[in-house]
Structure formats: C-alpha cells, structure tokens
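Hi there. Long-time user, first ticket. I'm pasting a complex I've been working with (about 806 residues overall). I'd like to know whether the download I got is complete or cut off, because the file seemed smaller than I expected. Thanks.
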Amino acid sequence: MRLSFIRPISCCAVSSSPSTSFKPQTPLFLRPPTFKTTLSDLKKWHLWAKSLASSVSSTFLKLDNGPNSELLLRELNWLIEDTIETPKSFFQETINPVSTRVCLDELYNLWKQRVEKRRPFQYIVGCEHWRDLVLSVEEGVLIPRPETELIVDLVDDVIKENEELKEGLWADLGTGSGALAIGIARVLGSDGRVIATDLSPVATAVASYNVQRYDLEEKVHVKQGSWFEPLRDDEGEFVGLVSNPPYIPSKEIGGLQAEVGRHEPRLALDGGESGMNDLIHLCDGAVSMLKPGGFFAFETNGDEQSKFLVHYIETKKQGNFSKVKMVSDFAGIKRFITGFRGR
Amino acid sequence: MEGMVQSSVPQYSKPFHSLPRNPTSVPIPRIKATHRRIPQLTSHSFLPSISSPLPSSMLLQKGGTVPFATPEVGVSNTETREWAMQDFYTLRKDVETVVERVEEIRGGAGLKQLQEDLAALEAAAADSSLWDNRAKAQETLQALTDCKDKLMLLHDFKAQADDAETIIKLTEEMDSIDSALLQEASGIIKELNKALDRFELTQLLSGPYDKEAAVITITAGAGGTDAQDWADMLLRMYVRWGEKQRYKTKVVEKSVGEEAGIKSATIEIEGRYAYGYLSGEKGTHRIVRQSPFNSKGLRQTSFSGVEVMPLLPEDSLDVEIPEEDLDISFTRAGGKGGQNVNKVETAVRITHIPTGVAVRCTEERSQLANKIKALSRLKAKLLVIAEEQRASEIKQIRGDAVKAEWGQQIRNYVFHPYKLVKDVRTAYETSDITSVMDGELDPFIKAYLKHKYTLAAKPTGLT
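Hi, the file is complete. Here it is re-exported in full:
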C-alpha cells in the first residue's frame, strides 16, 4: 500500500508564509515579447502545428476520451494569442517580423509536447482561464476545472442573504492554484477572509503567486499543510469551508485521459480506494471547524459519491448539519454536496 | 455589494497584456461597435465639383465651402470626350428618370410634415424652459438636427435635378453641343443617383437596432458533409460581404466538420447599420447542386440556418430574465467530468424556456465568460424578437412563431442544372451565382428591405 497523504498527519511544518524555495513560472502571456520571428517562419510553424493537430483526428478521443482535432485547433489559436504580441496582425499577415514571447524553437517544442506527449494545454501556456480569472498553473498543480467554477456561485448565493457569512472567515482546503480561494475572496465583503491550504509546496507557491497577482494578499492567506492542520488556531471560527479534494478512486487513475493521468499531480486526484477518503475526512472535520450556521460546499466525483456522502452526514453526523443537499453541475451530474452547520 | 458585482462581471483579462497591479480595476471591455462606417448622408459631400458658371449659383445656395468628395468630374475629359447625338438622348432620358425619382422621393418623404416638424422643433428649441430637462433637451436638439439635415438633403436633390434639367434644356436650345456642360450633367446625375440610393436605404433602416453591429451564426443543416460544406460557403459569403462594406469582420467561433466544411460558425460584423442590412438574412438558405462529395455526382439539396442578431452594448440590454426561465447547459462531452477530464470545452448553451429561444457561446476560454456572453446574446435575441412581434415584454413573445419565422426558408441557390439565386420573399433573382457567393449581396438586401418597408407600411396605411 502506498503511503497515504490523505490522513491528517501533520507531516509538513505549518507555516503562514509558504516555502520560498520554489519559484512559480511566469505564464507565457505575461512574458515580454522579446523574440523576433519572420512572418514566413511563423507561418510555416503554424501550418505544421495545424497539420499535426489535424493528424490526430479522433484518435485520442477513441483512446481515452482525449481531445480531437477540433479542440486542438482551438488550443492552437489560444497558444498564438498567448505567445504572439499582436496575434491579429499575424493572422492578417500585416506585420513582419513578428514579436513573440518565446522563440520559434520553443513554439515547435511546446506544440510537439502538447500533441505527442499529451501535455495539458494549460501547462503549455502556464495559465488557465477560469471564471473571470486567468490563473497561473504549472506541473504539480491541478488545473482548475470548469465545473468547480460553480462553487463560487454557490457561495455567492449563500452570502447574499447572510451578512455573517459574507464578512466572516472561510477556508479553501487543498487550494491547488488558489482558484476557489481567489474566486470566493472576490465575492466576500470587505471583512471577509479566506485561508487556503495545500499539502504541496508547489501548489502553495503557485496559489500565493496568483493571490498576489490579483492583489488579494490582505484577504487570502495561503498556508502549507494537510487539510485542517494549518487551521487549528481558528478552529470553530470558520463561517464557510469549500474544497475540491482528490476524489478519483485509485484504480481508475491509470485509465484517465492522458493529459490528466500522465501529467497532473496524483496528490490532487487520487482519493483512495473508494475515492472518498478525503471527502469523508473533510465531512468529519467540518463539524469542529465550522461556526454554528456555517456553510460548506465540497466537490465530488458525481452522483454516487454525493449520495453516499449525504447519507453519511445524515446518519453518522446526525444533528450536526442541516439542509444538506446535492447540487448538479451544468452537465446534470450531482457534482457538489452543500449544507450548513447546525445552530 | 461591491464584491458581488465584481464577481459577476467578467474582466476578460487579456492574455497578451500584463495584469495590472490591481486586477479588480481592469476596465470592463464593452461589446461596442468601433470603426463604424458612417454613410455620407449629410450636406454636400456627394456633390460633384462644378466648373461651369451656370448652375453653381443654384447649387451653392447655403454658402460656405463645399467639400469636394469627387474629383473634378466636370472638366476632366472635356477635350477627349465627344458627345454624339445618341449620347445626348441617353443623357436626356437619364435626367428625366432622375427628376422623376427625386420627385417621388420628395413626395414620399412627407415634405410638408417635415416642415411642420421643423417649425415645432425650432419653437421647442427656442423655449426658455428647454434645459430644465437635460435629456429631453438633447433629444429635441438631436431631432431638430436630423430634421434639418433631412430637409437640406431633399432640397439638394431637387437643386441638382434642376441643374441637370437646365443643362439639357440649354443644350436643346443651342445649335451645338457643349461637351463640358453635358459631361457635367452626366456627373451630376451619377452622383445624385448614388446619394438617392443611400437616402432610400437609410430610410428603410429605421428599426431600433438597425444602426448596431451584427452577430451572424451559421449552422449546417442535417445531411452531413454536403450541408457542412454549404455552411462553409455561406460563411465565406458573409465574410466577403462584410469586407466589401469595409466593416470590421471577425469569425469568432468556428466548429469544423469531420470531412469538410463547418458545423457552425459565428461572425461578428462591426460597423454602422450592419445589423440593419443583415437582419433580413436570417432564415434557412437552401442549395441545389451536384454533390462534390458523392462520386456519382448526384443532385443534392442541402440546408443551412443563418441567424442574425444585433451586437448590443451591455448597458442597452435592459432586460431582466428570471433565473428559472433559463436552462443553462454546457458541453462537457459525456463521461464523468470534473477532475477526470481536462478538455477546453467551455461552450455554454442557454435556452429561454418560455419561448424556446436558444443561443450558444463557445469562443471564450472560460465557462463563465461564455455564459455571460451567451446571456447577452440571448437578451439581444429576445429584444429583437419582441420588437419583431411588437411585443412590449419578453413574456409576450410567442415561441411557436419564433421557430416558424427564424427557420423559414428565405433563399434558394441553384448551381445545377442551371444557375440561379432567388429570394423566396422578394422574388429577386440573379443567375450570377459566383458574384453572390463572393459577397455580392446588396441587391438582395436592398430588395428585402424595400419588401419589408412595403409590408410595414401597409397596415398603417389602412388605419
């Protein structure tokens, strides 16, 4: 049995300022356009990249539900958007030479990695567009998914009618890139705060970088450590808890889409045998962490897990929570469980 | 609730610029039509340059300098061009036609009413209480300017027609032909006809959203590759049309077909009156041809749907749609979703449940951004439909009627066995299918606008 990272063992020092040893990468679109490439060379690259994308057809789709040519071509356009200083004039061929943020060799290299190595597009460009944010991401950090965007809406809905929740202390457990913490911090009131935790030093470094880029250092504190460990000082003080914990059953990791299974951190995906080790741990811990009336929203692997967890809370945590329910994502999958700490 | 507002408005952080220190203060880009082409409808810009001493006094009645938009037509070819009697008769005929046309337009424009309006507006503008209500004052002044401009134009049309007529009469009285004079008359009517065309078209474009930019969505009908290829041909046609109008034309979304063509595409066309011109293009376009994808070359009929909506500025989308009336779905193709999948599928589809009106948005990189854009497109669509159905509220829209109207077959493009493009509504047709596919849509657009204008005029005429 592999070493479990999911137990709330405090194996890492709890620190309020994340490790400084790791320096996050700058996303491509934020790099200076210091390279010059002739229009014809760049067009040659574009043609090559397009045909590489087209050659994929639906191979990956059939193989592991990966991207087809159509999606790859969309990504290629976005790669151009992020790396060429004036993408429009490139397409209209009105400028020569073209200023780029990476050199031509690197462009070849990046696209090769994308198609041949199935390296996720977001790691290629170093960012993910999520809600109205552009978040820096890199290897070692889970790429935030569109489904998770909904948690911010769920939070927004509950704080609309509740001043205490709006101005209180929140926690994002296993923050990864910091997406949820940042999204929530931006809807909270002026006194609202978020503590974001993650076991991975890479994640905390990237999350801190994102927090800083959105100028939210005052509102979001990133702490390194396992789940509730870094939050002990504020036990019972939280008005809200959110998390997108690892929830994929261990045995399914191998069959995942290559972009996910081969490149994203297992730490952020693998939820143990049933996939629910961490979710159960979160439900257990929420009782003592939340203030009476406090809100929680957790993402799950979908219908089955959500049903199990609602049942678990209703039977094992009887009386501790109220209004526990499942919420569907836009694809109709019961993706989230939400509820309130009983008064 | 400051925070909330920020969260619900996308900042579309531009990937190629560094984020500013405080990203919450990123200005929100509005969907705004820029680079608008302004039709030259005011005062004298279309007047030809006049070199002959005779008619100039009649033309330059309002004083001031005349911006000569055209080169010196009057004198340019005087020496080289010899006027034969035949040419003179043709010219005389042209002048007669243009004089009639001017009379017709002046009659149709309601000159008397305009003059009364002008008097009333001038009185209102002179009123001392004018600026008590700032918004109303500006409205009045704008109306006054519009009214004056229109009267001035109508006056200019008459003045020019008179000039041309005078030249013809003079020539008839003289023994010899004065080439310079005739050349001038020829120039006058050429420019006058252009100005009249423009005037007429603008008169037809008086809908509340006609001046706005437009969004065209093309969707291939059933029938696989043939239909998808047809959708691609239509896409090219509209892009070419947009470019010819010198509108800013941008294909914002394109979903390519498996073998050839496209499944769907969205074009944004920015420019003054883009929506007004294009609004009549919505409906089903039908092609008949020998299938290039069938080895037997059988005759094949395919369809593609075209939808046109105005691209309205965010602040004009003053429509509240209750959340429960919206069915929002997004394409995360099958499977388990969540952490299991990493695909850039952020497309959002919103259906307005009471009417069944649906829109899709796939071009943005995040789901929220697509949702916001889709919602504003939906609002624009509902506004347009409400206006078409003369409904004062979204609630009153009849969903069944929308489906029937927006899906109606409007035009046939026959490539085989003969060549013909024919509009089902106006019966306007041409056999020059190549030009049409090259974006030569103006005759169709004009015919439709006239057709629509006549239809609209009928009920009011009866009451």
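A couple of notes from our side: The mean pLDDT of chain B is 77. Residues 183 and 230 of chain B are 47 Å apart (CA to CA).
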